[in-house]
Design goal:
Layout (H helix, E strand, L loop, with lengths): L7 H14 L4 H5 L2 E8 L5 E2 L1 H14 E12 L5 E11 L4 E12 L5 E10 L3
Length: 124
């Protein structure tokens, strides 16, 4: 029996939790993005490796722990869709929950070209 390898969005969410737990793992997370990728987690998109690095550095610096749970599917058009929830602790000690749905266009090399998030539960 052969197991399918994790989809890119599966690797993305797992890498996000690892990067928060161990800031040295941030490069693993960033390696999942194409050099000119676009990420839109909220209203303002960021594009390119430098902007994406800055965005995720801020994300991991703000959290001391995160734990995501998710279900990923591949849509008929080839995009990946992930419905996720997260419990987290922030640097000020607050405990928060957040949830959303992300859609990603994945390039031929398996890296994220475009990632767009819609919150179904805003952080709080």
């Amino acid at each position: 029996m052969t197991e399918a390898s994790p989809l890119t969005l599966d690797r993305y969410l797992a890498a996000t939790d690892r990067a928060v737990a161990d800031k040295a793992a941030l490069d693993d997370l960033l390696g999942l993005f194409a050099p000119d990728a676009v990420v839109q987690i909220d209203d303002t998109p960021v594009q390119g490796a430098a902007a994406i690095r800055e965005f995720y550095q801020g994300f991991v610096a703000f959290h001391t722990a995160t734990k995501h749970y998710w279900n990923t599917t591949v849509l008929p058009d080839g995009r990946q869709r992930v419905e996720w929830v997260c419990a987290a602790r922030t640097i000020d000690g607050a405990v928060i929950t957040v949830a959303g749905i992300e859609h990603a266009v994945i390039g031929p090399d398996g890296r994220i070209v475009e990632l767009r998030n819609t919150f179904t539960r805003r952080p709080g």
